[in-house]
Predict the 3D structure of the following.
Amino acid sequence: MELEAVKGRNQRGISFVHPSVTAVRTALLSYQGVEVYTDIRTSEQVDSGSLIIDSRIFDELACEEHCEISLAAVPEEIPDCNELALLVDSLKGLDNKKVVDEVSKKVEDLKEHLDGLIVKLGQRIDIAGLGLRLVVDKSNPVAKGLQASRIIWNQLLKVNLTALADVPSCFNICYAIDVGASSEIDDVEVDDESHRKTRLEAGLSVIQSTLSSARACPNALVSAIAFGESPQQIESVEDMALELNSKSFNQIHEWLSAQNDDRKDEPSNPGKALEMSLQIANELRSQNHLPTVVLLISGGAFTSGRNPVSVARTIGATDGVSVSCVALGTESDLVLMQATADAGSGSLIHIGQYKDVKLVIERIFERIRSEAVGK
């Protein structure tokens, strides 16, 4: 079901619809690959076709007023948790252990930011006003299939806060996305088996999701390469890189769509795109010294230029720069994409189903964390 989003207040995790719309009590809201749970209630004061979303959930979805939100019923009962364990990360570069000590003294300050939310294990919750990122490490009990539970603050018996390991939580990204003939293939499955998305549609959602999830990373930068046979880099004002946040998506989306219009009949040259992307990635890293990821987004089509595996092996990942691959579609060349990611010291994320778009940002984050811990 598609509904028009309206930003409400802090509504204790509840979103409102007109009684004629649905009888659903709990729903999964989806927008551009980002998914968030919400409780649903009806009100005659809501226009038919609209969804008034709790302000915190609205911000998590990174949508805009009156955009279309997908709503799907949640079949499993989601319990209220009585134990909650959170990992704490400072968004201001402060020592996480000291931050935990301070937050523990006034844990009630978290109530307005968490009360009523339905959270999943591993979910990140950014509280910009407090300069915090919280990661849900444990909640009990949870819905087994969804690994989710509802926070009713006054019912919590225990809240444990632990400092997130002192490793990078912010990073730069250089996207290299195929906009040639291969991007027109529609082999990314959605829940409705009668419909599929093209690789380009899924790739754009990957970019939207990663930009939205990283929106609280100060000083992080993003750039993009569109490739068919001849790769092109996105241009920005005064040749400065874009900021890594959801506001950059409209500019990137508009540019990539125009590139696709011009190049949708071209063969794919991922090797040249990768070569250009690694050069840009090193430039981004030199500006802010953050870990930098080249994200090759493609179905693995290689019909022009050098083999991307050879490029990744020859140029290689440098200190703080890696290559991860997002393989789009059920018929994508996973062997080529895995070999490219291995050569670039990165990860492979396969998006055969559209719902897997949400996995990309967490896999990147996990990879950077594991590398930092291993040093």
The chain has nine helices and 21 strands. Residues 83-163 form a domain with the Vcp-like ATPase; Chain A, domain 2 fold (CATH 3.10.330). The first helix runs from residue 55 to 61.
